[in-house]
């Protein structure tokens, strides 16, 4: 181990500097929806990325405190939506409310997709992915997805974190 890293267990935490650094980034925001056991759920996420080209794989992390996480733990398929700036009201709905208290799907247009995962009809860019692995990481769990269906829709820009950071989370991360 490099000497500059310190001894194992040494306090080298970046603290506020790291929080400030990542808080300034403009991560693409996504809406994840899923269904299992007769229950639908969805939330706004920023922890997600493509992680393999061949075969194509995508990973999305859900907070263990989130209602969507509890449903996703039992689900076979997650739908990942990529809202444009014009689709920001969906981000507000799925990021600013919790399914513990509100039926988000009663407030938007959706249809049942593969594996029962809700597909948001007003978000034209999305894919459905089969869950092939769950990866525990401290306060979030990663869901490794194999895309099985996708709609690329017309490109209308990407909704980034900086444009929605004013949304008060429906659920603490």
UniProtKB/TrEMBL annotation:
SUPFAM superfamilies, per database record: FMN-binding split barrel (SSF50475)
SMART domains, A to Z: Flavin_Reduct
Keywords from the named record: Oxidoreductase
One Gene Ontology molecular-function label: riboflavin reductase (NADPH) activity
InterPro entries the UniProt entry points to: Flavin_Rdtase-like_dom, NADH-dep_flavin_reductase, Split_barrel_FMN-bd
Lineage: superkingdom: Bacteria
Species classification: Bacteria, Bacillati, Actinomycetota, Acidimicrobiia, Acidimicrobiales
Domain Flavin reductase like: 22-157
Protein name, per record: Flavin reductase like domain-containing protein
């Amino acid at each position: 181990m490099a000497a500059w890293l310190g001894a194992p267990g040494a306090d080298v935490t970046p603290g506020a500097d790291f929080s400030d650094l990542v808080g300034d980034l403009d991560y693409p925001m996504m809406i994840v929806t899923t269904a299992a056991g007769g229950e639908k759920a969805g939330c706004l996420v920023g922890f997600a990325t493509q992680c393999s080209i061949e075969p194509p794989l995508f990973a999305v992390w859900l907070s263990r405190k989130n209602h969507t996480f509890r449903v996703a733990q039992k689900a076979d398929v997650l739908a990942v939506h990529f809202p444009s700036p014009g689709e920001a009201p969906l981000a507000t709905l799925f990021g600013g409310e919790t399914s513990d208290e509100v039926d988000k799907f009663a407030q938007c247009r959706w249809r049942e997709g593969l594996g029962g995962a809700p597909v948001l009809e007003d978000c034209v860019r999305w894919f459905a992915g089969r869950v092939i692995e769950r990866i525990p990481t401290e306060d979030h769990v990663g869901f490794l997805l194999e895309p099985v269906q996708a709609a690329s829709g017309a490109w209308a820009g990407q909704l980034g974190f900086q444009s929605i950071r004013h949304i008060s989370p429906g659920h603490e991360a």
